[in-house]
Each structure stands twice: as structure tokens, then as C-alpha cells.
Amino acid sequence: MMTLTATATEKVQDFIQEHSAESEAGLRVAVLPGGLLRIPVRPQH
User: Fold this and answer.
1) N or C terminus of the chain with fewer C-beta within 10 Å?
2) 1 within some domain
3) Closest to 11 measured CA to CA, from 33, 38, 19
4) Is there a contact between 31 and 39 (Cβ–Cβ < 8 Å)?
5) How confident is the model at residue 6 (pLDDT cuts 50, 70, 90)?
6) How confident is the model at residue 5 (pLDDT cuts 50, 70, 90)?
7) In terms of C-beta distances under 8 Å and separation of at least 24 residues, what long-range contacts does 3-8 make, across chains too?
8) Is residue 20 scored above 60 in pLDDT?
9) What's the total number of domains in the chain?
10) Does some domain include residue 35?
């Protein structure tokens, strides 16, 4: 499970609206191994 900030939630909702996605659309992400302190997250579309 991933928790999004309010700002991130707005960005996802804007993306869905801009791309005329269905109201049931979601967000798929890939978690990639990264450096010592960070795990980069890449959106999948």
C-alpha cells in the first residue's frame, strides 16, 4: 500500500482527467531498487 499526500492525490486526479480516463482509473507505479537512502518510483502508463 502507498500513501499519497494531498498534493500528490490532486496531481493523480488531474492526470486522470487530462487523459479522459474512466472514473474507476487508478495509478500503477514501479518500485525500483535505488541508492542507499532512496527508492525511486516511476509511474507506469
Assistant:
1) N
2) no
3) 19
4) yes
5) very high
6) very high
7) none
8) yes
9) 1
10) yes
Closest Cα partner for 12 from 28, 1, 34?
28
> For the whole model, what pTM was predicted?
0.53
Please report the pLDDT score of residue 10 as a whole number.
Answer: 93
Record the cell numbers describing residue 43, joined without a space: 509511474
Which is higher by pLDDT, 25 or 40?
25
Domain of 14, in residue numbers: 6-18+26-44
- 3 to 7, 9, 19, 20, 27: CA distances (angstroms): 12, 9, 23, 24, 12
Side chain identity at residue 5, one-letter code: T
- The C-alpha cell 516511476 sits at 42
